[in-house]
Specification:
611 residues, alpha/beta, Glucose Oxidase, domain 1, eight-stranded mixed sheet, 35% helix, Phosphogluconate dehydratase, gluconate utilization
Length: 611
């Protein structure tokens, strides 16, 4: 057996020690809920009648007789968003698959599923991050009927999966199986899409050409194919063992996709007290969380997961920090290049060997806990690849011995770079993070005078006026969770990329987020403390000299025209950002949300400070 890497072992033990009290409180909480029999037996006759009144007769007989386990389905289905449109038919498939193994299944409830691709650069983006916690609460309401013996979660995209995981872990006495929908077919190559976006920002092409390119990129049911937050979520679900092996990137609308959904249903039924009871809150532990972090770093995944993994871990009493993730990143080699880190998309990654190959190589390198529990056994069992056999069943096979394309996926002894590319950035302006895996080495250090903006529209105006045609560090403040909900600033990527391509040294510093699809611009994001809560970023002024070194992990104020500490901080004007498009309903969340380093959540978990 391969020896665990000493850094992974040390960080895991540190997390375990730090989390001892909160993890104990959590385990006691879910063990108090451990079922002695089927959940609905705890209900009165009237409760049971209400819970089964709308069912098919064949299911109602079993629900009232309490002879089969009952699976609750929590779905993020809607037919506007491509990633979730395939879920429309899943409940019907799941119900029949459950009957085939003497179980019942009911849609317990739906959760909202908003798309950052639709709201990018729009006011609705200010609700995006908080939708994660709303999803967790909505899933909690769905499961609060307490008639379920296991749960299946149907979700893919940015905030949906983290929200569902938080809910699943708060109902940790229930077995949980996550069911993906798969990516859409590859469309317009990602570099071509990025080129047209930049040309539009420069005024070289019109809206008709931009709309054509966007429509050719996002063109069918399924997940967007670039390696942003949605597909990073899917990778994390496999690394945590909440998916069937190799199921994340199987396309929708195929025989294999349907067979995997049926098999996921059988697995959920088998994990109830009618089979080999495996509560998800005991299955997921410190090792599972570390495995997810390693997977994120090895694939160059989305920085949004830095926020989400902290909140997900806290939901089961595990205290994870950005420092832990940065240390893991330093020890984890980059084994994948997927857009925005190359021209390849997740379909190409899957064809080159996909998750099975990746997990096997990480085990070989001693970088993950192979013995961590999963819904199929251990993580070592997760390195399998599903194929559809002639009889319609799934044929599980070992991953290929060699990568199908080493420009996309590499073995552990030939990585793209020695570390995962996530940097913890520290200095006098606070703590932030940066992903450098897609940033060329010559762009990773920027020293320049700054331009300070309080919103992203002002950045775009300054660009159009030619005010940014120079070496510049763009500072965008009042974008944190306590200000306007911490929106992504991905709509700035084309203009910053255009400046960089013109030969200027450019960087972004913000207390907001960037998209999981953003890559080539050096940045310091998630800056804490944020400007709205008195962080040093609120004292910055145009012309201050700043140095961002994403290699060494430092952000330093070099020169000002006065005494920095004597400056009055800029004041956030909440009335400008808190009304319209439902934003006024989220005021309490902005007020209560924790800093980015604690997951930017407004939940408080037992035994832990606000995580």
């Amino acid at each position: 057996m391969t020896t665990l890497h000493p850094v992974i072992e040390r960080v895991t033990e540190r997390i375990r020690t730090r989390s001892a009290e909160s993890r104990s409180i959590y385990l006691n909480l879910i063990r108090d809920q451990k079922p002695e029999s089927f959940a609905r037996k705890r209900l009165s006759e009237g409760n049971q009648a209400h819970a089964s009144a709308g069912c098919a007769v064949m299911d109602k007989v079993q629900l009232l007789g309490a002879s089969w386990p009952n699976i609750g389905i929590v779905t993020a289905y809607n037919d506007m968003l491509s990633a979730h449109q395939p879920y429309e038919t899943y409940p019907q498939v799941i119900r029949q698959a459950a009957r085939d193994v003497q179980a019942t299944a009911q849609v317990a409830g739906g959760v909202p599923a908003m798309c950052d691709g639709v709201t990018q650069g729009q006011d609705g983006m200010e609700l995006s991050l908080f939708s994660r916690d709303v999803i967790a609460m909505a899933a909690g309401i769905a499961l609060s009927h307490d008639t379920f013996d296991a749960a299946m979660y149907l979700g893919v995209c940015d905030k949906i999966v983290p929200g569902l995981v938080i809910a699943a872990l708060r109902f940790g006495w229930l077995p949980a199986v996550f069911v993906p929908a798969g990516p859409m077919p590859s469309g317009l190559p990602n570099p071509e899409k990025a080129r047209i976006r930049q040309e539009f920002a420069q005024g070289k092409v019109g809206r008709d050409e931009l709309l054509r390119a966007e429509s050719e990129s996002y063109h069918a049911p399924g997940t967007c194919t670039f390696y942003g937050t949605a597909n990073s979520n899917q990778m994390v679900m496999e690394m945590m063992g909440l998916h069937l092996p190799g199921s994340a990137f199987v396309p929708p609308g195929t025989g294999l996709r349907e067979a995997l959904t049926k098999e996921a249903t059988r697995k959920a039924a088998s994990l109830t007290i009618a089979g080999e009871y495996l509560p998800v809150g005991e299955m997921i532990d410190e090792r599972s969380i570390v495995n997810a972090v390693v997977g994120l770093m090895a694939t160059g995944g989305s920085t949004n997961l830095v926020l989400h993994l902290v909140a997900m871990a806290a939901a089961c009493g595990v205290d994870l920090t950005p420092e832990d993730m940065a240390e893991i990143s330093h020890a984890t080699p980059l084994l994948c290049r997927i857009y925005p880190n190359s021209a390849a998309d997740v379909n190409h990654f899957h064809a080159a060997g996909g998750m099975g190959f990746l997990i096997r190589e990480l085990i070989k390198g001693g970088l993950i806990h192979a013995e961590a529990q999963t819904i199929t056994g251990t993580l070592a069992d997760q390195s399998k690849e599903p194929f559809l056999a002639a009889d319609g069943q799934i044929d599980w096979q070992e991953p290929p011995a060699e990568s199908g394309e080493e420009d996309i996926l590499r073995p552990i002894d030939n990585p793209f770079q020695k570390d995962g590319g996530l940097r913890l950035i520290e200095g006098g302006l606070g703590e932030s993070v940066s992903k450098v895996s897609a940033v060329k080495p010559e762009h990773r250090v920027v020293e320049a005078d700054i331009r300070v903006f309080d919103d992203q529209e002002s950045v775009k105006t300054a660009y159009k006026n030619g005010e940014l045609n120079k070496d510049v560090i763009v500072v965008v403040r009042f974008q944190g969770p306590g200000a306007n909900g911490m929106p992504e600033l991905h709509s700035l990527t084309p203009i910053l990329g255009s400046l960089q391509d013109q030969g200027f040294k450019v960087a972004l510093v913000t207390d907001g987020r960037m998209s999981g699809a953003s890559g080539k611009i050096p940045n310091a994001i998630h800056l804490s403390p944020e400007a709205a809560r008195g962080g040093p970023i609120a004292r910055l002024r145009d012309g201050d000299r700043v140095r961002l070194d994403t290699e060494q992990g430092s952000l330093d104020l070099l020169k000002t025209g006065d005494v920095f500490e004597d400056r009055e901080p800029a004041v956030f004007r909440p009335n400008l950002h808190s009304v319209g498009l439902g934003r006024e309903m989220f005021g309490p969340m902005r007020h209560e949300a924790s800093d980015a380093s604690k997951g930017a959540t407004f939940f408080t978990f037992p035994g832990m400070q606000k995580a």
